Amino acid sequence: MHFVVPFDEYRPELRPQVGGKNASLGEMTAAGLPVPPGFAITTTAFTAHFGDPDLSRDLKALLTEADPGRPETVEPVSQAVRARVEAAPLNAELTAALSAAYDRLCERCQADDIAVAVRSSATCEDAPDASFAGEHDSFLWIRGAADITHHVVRCWSSLWTARAICYRATTGYAGAAVAMSVGVQKMVRPIASGVAFTLNPSNGDRSQVAIDANWGLGEPVVSGEVTPDHYLVDKVLYEITERRVSHKTVELRVEGDGIRRVELDGDRAHGPCLSDEEITAVARLARQAERHYGCPQDIEWALDSELVSPENVVLLQSRPETVWSSRARPPVATSTNVMDSIVSTLCAPIYTRAQPAT
Amino acid sequence: MSDRFPSPFEIETPPGAEGWEELYPYYMVFSADRREYEDSMFWFQDGIHWPAALTPWDATFFEYALAALSQYNTRHYLIPPALGVDARILNGYAYLSPVGVADPAEIEARVPHFLERAGYYFGNWDRLYAQWMEKMRVLIGEMEAVSFDPLPEKEEIEVVTEGHGTGSGLTLISSYHRLIDLALKLWQYHFEFLNLGYAAYLDYFGFCKQAFPNIPDLSIAKMVAGVEVDLFRPDEELKGLARAAVELGVDKAFNLAGDAEAVLAELRGSPAGQQWLERFESVKHPWFNFSSGSGFYHTDRIWIEHLSIPFGFIGNYVAKLNAGESIDRPVEEVRAERERIVAEYRELLGSDEDRAAFAGKLGLARTVFPYVENHNFYVEHWSHSVLWRKMRDLGRVLAKEGFLADADDVFFLKRNEIPDAIYDSYIAWAVGVGPRGTAYWPREIERRKGILGALAQWSPPKALGKPPEVVTEPFTIMLWGITSESVTAWLGGGTGESGGLSGFAASPGVAEGPARVIFSAEQIGEIEQGDILVAPLTAPSWAPIFGKIGATVTDIGGMMSHAAIVCREYGLPAVTGTAFGTRQIKTGQRIRVDGSAGTVTVLEG
Fold first, then answer.
1. Does the distance separating the beta carbons of B202 and A346 come in below 8 Å?
2. Distance (Å) from the C-alpha of residue A193 to the closest C-alpha of chain B?
3. What is the model's pLDDT at position A126?
4. Which residues contact B84 (CB under 8 A, 6 or more apart)?
5. Among A329, A341, A355, whose Cβ lies nearest the Cβ of B350?
6. A232 to chain B: which residues are within 8 Å by CB?
7. Is there a contact between A354 and B351 if contact means CB atoms under 8 Å apart?
8. How high is the pLDDT of residue A296?
């Protein structure tokens, strides 16, 4: 029985134990899509923890106090239950497994106490809605095994928010065994990040990956607050076919465990934020996502300063591209007769000269 | 920035070159007689084939090549929008002007003829190409059979007893006429397939660009490039000979490679060396009939006549083998990579109809491409080697008569002056008196050498006359890399905002290193490991140095120029057609070559 499953050791049969979100991260890792590394705390760990007879008995007793018909009775019960959950000591085996997984993560990032995000991962995906499992808390910038452990338990305890208690009672799931998996994933500390499309959005060319990039976090790229550096990369040869380095005015920089907005000037404003190798690495990442999902993708990526090349280009999100993908592609072949086609070509040849960056 | 290039009529004669027009046929120079037409046209200097001033006889191949190219466009296949490419010589340099069909009705009228004629060639390509190969072999045999012998003191007795009724003077003149007729025939053969090959390639190219507007030109070229190509055979043979030298234990002989005679003497001295020489003899014909230049100049050195060149290259390969490096070409990997590229682009197309059209066009491009890649070896290298050799034989005859100081001086006579010189010698021989040529030609040749010396110092403008609104002539684009953009760049002087150079992204990759500016094959020995070669152009026979250099920058060349094909073949980052590379870059400067973006940056120095 696994208490902890690193994303890169995920197997499909573990899905019920790690929940949808963690399973998805595990699948992407297995497909060679480098999401930020991390691990899942399984439902097995949850069950073992709540299998403690004292805890189990106390919770049952406390919960009898709540009457979903009278909401004012639920909130105090919720607070008492959550306090009890968070006060319970974790079993030693889980503590050790979590600690070992975190050490490995730190080792991989070549750091002592790498910051992570701790998030719940729903396991009842066929439930009518996700509220079944409580309000899914996310905790960012958590460091050290002890603090992570604490926040894993806080995720667990979110199963007993007042709203979740009421929800389960009124939908008839009150008696169902609840369980939750928790994901622990490295926080990205990006040198640069941005978006990429697996086609050229300006002309629909499917042979290209278009990349927009800025220093720091990707939000200003997504929101359009900065004019990002723009690149086109051929998917087959991984040649950079177009490059446009922009005047980048602002960066959202991760400093300590916070984010600071920095106005840019000098080389940082005018110089490229990615090297050629990094550009092609982002393009390969986008192409992998496209191959994995089988249709053009629109991805968010980051170049993480705490990972070692070539693992430092990470995928944050991938979703289907919608604009060009929803249009019919006009046929290229105008004639089935090759001689007619040659005559047209001779009368209007296309320039062979490489197009300059515009 | 000017909106036009200088008129050919504004170009001044360099000091000391007065009278240069007399070195070329009257129809090859700009003249008041055709001024209105000549001033209305756009002319570009063809530095790919003729980067240096032409001696009078060397202008022959220039004339023949352009006549043959043009006749196929205009008269054989009736390429709908394109007539021929007009040619002129200005201050000794070759200028070209593509001529289009202006009248749309005329273009329309040419279409059915083109369909019938070109269609026939495309439909029967393999058979006709096999026939071409055979014709070439016969032609080269005919050229080899031409001989030039000095006029005898008295005719052989058989001339009398067999009743020939003709003498050696006629034979000498006839042999020359035969040689130049064979040369013209050679150039007709050269263009029998080439224009159509480019047309099919352009059609495939256009399809790729339309399907994938941002596809690198390199991808398009890689999908059709042959894996085993005759143009690269000479280099493969050098490698084979290097391996044989190591296997036979005679590799030390190549330490003497600077002195070909010493290498040969060393090899003759041992049975293993003799075995190696047998192998060498078996491959040198035809593969070492290989010019170290474009093949268009009598001064281009041919391997078979300058064994120190191939021996030097063999020595380099021997050194690599002895250092444990591989010199093998990964043929299977190259083939597999080519198929991977094709498969991926095919998959990215939008429909099965497009995939079928792509397969058809790629198939035709691959059918025609072996000719595009290989003809250069058979014509400019092998056949020209024979022709230069034969002309030197004639030069020796004329030198013996005292007409020339040296056999090579024969190239300072115009093609059509040579029958006169032979006749001068013949009639004096017939009469039994002295010819005028012994006084006339040495003096005249000295004068011409002075003129050519002055022309060699002169830098020809890239272009003359009125820039075209838009360049559409397909062969001008494909072969010479002349496009509306390059013309605009020339008008602007070639420098971008960054002070860098730009050209064709001919072969991918980025390299930095010290520049080595090389103007001719004779300077190849100056190149050191890691240098970035900067040259007006490179010849296929420079391939063996590609293991030494980091990248190549050339002044001239399109995507299909020989230099571009070779650079891609050898996986060397290259930017071609920068126009000003050799003028702006100095030997020793650190430069950065981006063969993917087509840019060259001077970093320091």
1. yes
2. 23
3. 44
4. B66, B67, B69, B70, B71, B73, B74, B99
5. A329
6. 214
7. no
8. 96
Burial state string for B175-209 with b = 16 or more CB within 10 A and e = fewer than 16: bbebbbebbebbbebbbbbbbbbbbbbbbbbbbbb
Residues of A with Cβ-Cβ distance to B219 under 8 angstroms: 234, 236-237, 239
Q: Is B254 helix (H, G, I), strand (E, B) or coil?
A: helix
Chain B residue with minimum CA distance to A206: B348
d(CA B121, CA A271): 54
A318 beta partners: A299
Asked if A350 lies within 8 A of B206 by C-beta distance, the reply is: yes
Contacts of B508 in chain A (CB under 8 A): 237, 239
- pLDDT of amino acid B476: 78
Chain B positions in Cβ-Cβ contact with residue A242 (cut-off 8 Å): 214
| Helix ranges (DSSP H) in B25-103 | 35-40, 59-71
Cα B231 to Cα B373: distance, rounded to the nearest angstrom: 7
B364:A232 CB<8 A: no
Tell me what pLDDT residue A128 has.
43
User: Distance of alpha carbon A81 from its chain centroid, rounded?
Assistant: 31
Whether the bond between A310 and the residue before it is cis, its omega within 30 degrees of 0, is yes
CA gyration radius, chain B: 25
Flag whether pLDDT at B257 surpasses 80: no
Q: Report whether B546 contacts B565 (CB < 8 A).
A: no
Compute the count of residue pairs across chains A and B with CB atoms less than 8 Å apart.
152
Which pLDDT belongs to residue A357? 33
What's the mean pLDDT in A69-90? 88
CA distance B532 to B590: 9
Architecture of the A4-186 domain: 2-Layer Sandwich (3.30)
What residue ranges do the domains of chain A occupy? 4-186, 190-331
Residue A6 · residue A86 · CB < 8 Å: no
Distance separating alpha carbons of residues A6 and B358, to the nearest angstrom: 46
Tokens of A57: 């008995």
Higher pLDDT, A38 or A166: A38
Point out the residue among B214, B219, B350 whose CB comes nearest to the CB of A242: B214
Cβ-based contacts of B599 with chain A (< 8 Å): none
**A329, A241, A324: which is closest to B213 by C-alpha?**
A241
> Among candidates B567, B565, B557, B562, which has minimal Cα distance to B532?
B567
Token pair 């009898």: residue: A64
**CA R_g for chain A:** 25
Provide the shortest C-alpha distance from residue A195 to chain B (in Å): 19
Name the superfamily (CATH) of residues A190-331: ATP-grasp fold, B domain (3.30.470.20)
**Which residue intervals of B248-383 are DSSP H helices?**
260-268, 271-287, 308-322, 331-348, 352-376
Does the predicted interface ipTM exceed a cut of 0.95? no
Q: For chain A, how far is it from start to end, CA to CA, in angstroms?
A: 58
Q: Which residues of A touch chain B, with CB atoms under 8 Å apart?
A: 200, 203, 205-208, 232, 234-237, 239-243, 276, 329, 331-333, 336, 338-339, 341-343, 345-357
Name all domains of chain B by residue range, CATH numbers in brackets: 230-331 (no CATH), 496-604 (3.50.30.10)
Partners of A193 in the β-ladder: A214, A302
Q: Across chain B, what does the average pLDDT equal?
A: 90
Between the alpha carbon of residue B346 and those of residues A327, B7, B208, B217, B405, the distances in Å are 20, 48, 10, 16, 63
Q: Is B331 exposed, middle or buried (0-12, 13-18, 19+ CB in 10 A)?
A: exposed
Distance from CA of A168 to the nearest CA of B (A): 49
CB A241 within 8 A of CB A234: yes
